Amino acid sequence: MVPEARPPDSPLPDSPLTEHLKRRIAVEGPLSVASFMGDALGHPKFGYYITADRFGAAGDFITAPEISQMFGELVGLWCAHTWAAMGSPDRVNLVELGPGRGTLMRDALRAAAMLPPFREALRVHLVETSPVLRSRQGEALAPALEGGKPVWHDSFATVPDGPLLVIANEFFDALPIRQFEKTPHGWTERLVDVDPDGGGFRFVLDRRPGPVEALIPARVRISPVGSVFEICPAATAIARELGGRLAGSGGAALIVDYGHPRSAAGETLQAVRRHAFVPVLDDPGEADLTAHVDFEMLADAAKAGGAGAWGPASQGEFLMSLGIQERAAMLRQRATPEQTADIDRAVQRLIGETEMGTLFKVLALTGPGQDAPAGFEPRP
Ligand code: SAH
What is the pLDDT of residues 131-148, one digit of tens each? Predict the structure, then answer.
């Protein structure tokens, strides 16, 4: 008998998204980090958010509204307070950007129902690109909307005119960023290319001369060689549009995310899969890619659109000033010992300094001339 030689191991076949990205690189050359990230998260067929619901203990990550009902309830009360300060308009568009599973909106609407004139004024609009998540949102909101449906939009641009309340929790961190690196010859863009060894992806530097320096704030431009600076053009565009709409129609927006209060050098692009960090260019479409939000850029863009900007406050300070401890005490009154432990743990996660309390920040935008919204210091 002749022993049959085993054929050499062949590498795992590429996923359809990896194939698509490699074809793009073959045709267009190395891609900007924003193009890579945009496809990884939002490719209409294979993108990370498009193909599945990734939330919760069994998924990749967990967000504040998924940790506790208190988060959405307090945001709902913040909206009610802001609506009263707007002069209690008969109609207001309550808009959520990137509503995930719809949990925040569901909890906010339950809190809003305690103030019937406010609840009756609300028209719910959801800006969401993922069909899978749209259907989760529809299910989550059906009871609160009494069988009615929210109105979905692919982008904020199609939300109708009128007074606005806008909520965005962990939405801006999912928008594609561009990365720039300081070299001995000046700033240059980082691009994503196919790695000739191994066939995965790798970062390369753009060798073509381009007007990159103008995109880097003067304060950051002087950073040492090797520094990285990130911009998020989609975030800036949405903030500017929000600013313009708030200036025209009045209202407020509440933006909650992790990030830095001032524009600064730093590499923050990260990939998370099953609650752990993984290399950012591995397996696009299979891990959550996010970057820290530059709150200074968001605030400046909204102000350029005509809005007022408040904060950012830390999530811990913000939730405490809205009364999270009082709300937790109310919930504890009816809780079993096990539920009490869950409530204590949730409060700790949401406001604890080493958990979400300090890293996460809250920026509010308002129509011009409006007072400081609840949870923010009045201007001196
Ligand atoms: N706010 C939710 C979900 C955060 S995850 C929570 O706190 O749990 C980001 C959300 O934004 C998802 O719903 C995702 O599908 C959506 N999303 C990402 N990019 C988007 C885009 N460009 N336009 C609209 N929605 C987007």
Answer: 999 999 999 999 999 877
Classify residue 33: in a domain, yes or no. Answer: no
When mean pLDDT is compared across 165-169, 280-284, 310-314, 367-371, the lowest value belongs to 367-371
CATH code where residue 67 lies: 3.40.50.12710
Report yes or no on 332 lying in a domain: yes
Q: Cβ contacts of residue 98 below 8 Å, gap of 6+?
A: 127, 128, 168, 169, 170, 171, 174
Q: 320-350: per-residue pLDDT in tens?
A: 999 999 999 999 999 999 999 999 999 999 9
The Å distance, Cα 218 to ligand 1 centre, comes to 32
How many residues comprise the chain?
380
Q: Which atom of ligand 1 is nearest to the CA of 170?
A: 4
Residue 286 lies in a domain: yes
- Per-residue pLDDT band at 3 (split at 50, 70, 90): low
- Please indicate whether residue 99, judged by its CB atom, sits closer than 6 Å to ligand 1: yes
- 221 inside domain: no
- How many domains does the chain contain in total? 1
The rounded distance, in Å, linking the Cα atoms of 338 and 330 is 15
Name the residue of 107, 128, 153, 257 to mutate for ligand 1: max ligand atoms within 8 A of Cβ.
128
Does the beta carbon of 66 lie inside 6 Å of ligand 1? yes
Task: Let me know the angle formed at the C-alpha of 258 by 254 and 259, rounded to the nearest 5 degrees.
Answer: 105
Q: Which domain holds residue 81?
A: 51-176+231-364
